[in-house]
Design goal:
alpha+beta; two-stranded antiparallel ribbon; 7 helices
């Protein structure tokens, strides 16, 4: 009976280890489910511009990047995309019928919910704690084998699961961009613009600034959030697709 019990113990331990390797956790599921690059670009608000004749298809373009990724450049691609749509890019803001200004606020790893939060905040809103790093794929680690038939099998399974989860990461990169478009109003139309800004003054203090001005341009604002998701994704792999989606979204307004 002793030999029979030992053989049973070994078999159960082997089965436990085998199941641990198969279910290895979410690492296997993540590596399969997230093997393809998934890129999405969303705009917080819809912007409609009035149709104009060919002589008014002139745009003043200004793009800034205040993120920590100095090599994330969308100015050139947007310039080319607008020209391909029949628009002239001018350095003279007074001559241009449209002003297109954009600022890349953030280009970094993000949590799955950060994109939704940043988009919901809209133009000028908070980024919603974007820099939360990559989520490690995998299920909770456990000692499943110990209760079934072998402490040794459970230990080996847990070790394999831990190593697998550490090597397989579900990574999301997110780019947050605020855009403002100014459009010349029709002749005789006067635009009044009222603005309000709350500025903090130390701990517990604040100051509210309000202003009004008369302009001949209608202004529209929106936020564009682009995400790229894939297992073990690196920034240099995500950047081209993020740029392409962002450029397509912004130039598509015109």
């Amino acid at each position: 009976m002793g030999n029979f019990g030992s053989r049973t113990f070994i078999k159960l331990s082997a089965i436990t280890l085998f199941l641990s390797l198969l279910s290895g956790c979410g690492a296997i599921h993540t590596s399969i489910a997230k093997k393809d690059l998934d890129v999405q670009t969303k705009m917080s608000d819809t912007i409609f511009l009035d149709p104009v004749g060919p002589d008014k298809k002139v745009i003043y373009l200004e793009v800034k990047n205040t993120s920590d990724k100095t090599n994330f450049d969308i100015l050139g691609p947007i310039h080319q995309a607008l020209q391909s749509r029949g628009y002239e890019i001018s350095n003279d803001p007074d001559r241009a019928h449209y002003w297109l200004r954009a600022n890349v606020l953030s280009a970094e790893k993000a949590s799955p919910t950060a994109a939704e939060s940043a988009l919901a905040s809209g133009y000028g809103g908070a980024l919603g704690g974007a820099a939360l790093g990559a989520a490690i794929g995998g299920a909770t680690h456990g000692w499943a084998g110990a209760g079934v038939g072998g402490l040794a099998g459970g230990l080996a399974g847990a070790l394999v699961e831990t190593v697998a989860d550490a090597a397989v990461k579900d990574v999301t990169y997110m780019v947050v961009t605020d855009i403002e478009i100014a459009e010349k109003a029709k002749e005789g139309v006067i635009i009044r613009q009222d603005s309000q800004q709350d500025a903090k003054q130390g701990i517990g203090g604040s100051r509210r600034q309000t202003s009004s001005e008369i302009s001949d341009r209608k202004k529209y604002r929106a936020r564009v959030v682009s995400t790229a998701n894939q297992v073990n994704l690196e920034y240099h792999e995500a950047a081209p697709s993020l740029t392409e989606g962002l450029v397509r979204s912004i130039s598509g307004i015109f």
